[in-house]
Amino acid sequence: MKNKSYIGISFIILIFGIWAVPKIISKFQKSDLASMGPVPSFELTDQNNKTITDKDYLGKVYVVEFFFSTCPTICPKMNQNMLKLQKEYYGNPEFGIASVTINPENDTPEVLKAHAEHLGVKHFNWHFLTGDKDYIFNLAISGFNSYAGENNKVPGGFEHSGLFALIDKDGVIRCRKDEHGNPILYYDGLADEGVQAIKEDIKKLLDE
Questions:
Q1: Cα–Cα separations (whole angstroms), residue 14 to 18, 104, 107
Q2: What per-residue confidence (pLDDT) applies to 31?
Q3: What pTM did the predictor assign?
């Protein structure tokens, strides 16, 4: 009787091992997302007057956007899509968002704090970042290769892309590939397809 019980328990352990080991291994494997190089280093001030750098995001999967609080065109849509990501990963300490203003002369920490409260920002790793204007423009253009600039002929007086950058836990910019196998680099923060894609890929990076 004891031998039968022992055999039965051993069989259960064996079956569990066959099922569990591949899942444990896969959790620590890299996903199929392309690596585009390290995120540019930055040091800015958030809505709580706290200095935030790229090092503060190490160990977290996070999304970077460039925006400004008085933007009358694409920013409201981008904000709503960021809120969808917040809802999806709310309470997860390994997820974060960095929203960098391109109009720091207006967007002081106090203004950004009010803006975040108005949007309904609740995730503790969502930082609205401000600093020196030239520094931020250089970060956007040279660091992320993403357009940002002043233009008094457009609504709001500033121009920028509506793209989201995805960064992994090691501080590397990651992205999926298109149907031809080419990295897309950034995700369309204005399109439902882009938001769904980055939502799926955030999960992949969280599982790495």
A1: 6, 60, 59
A2: 82
A3: 0.85
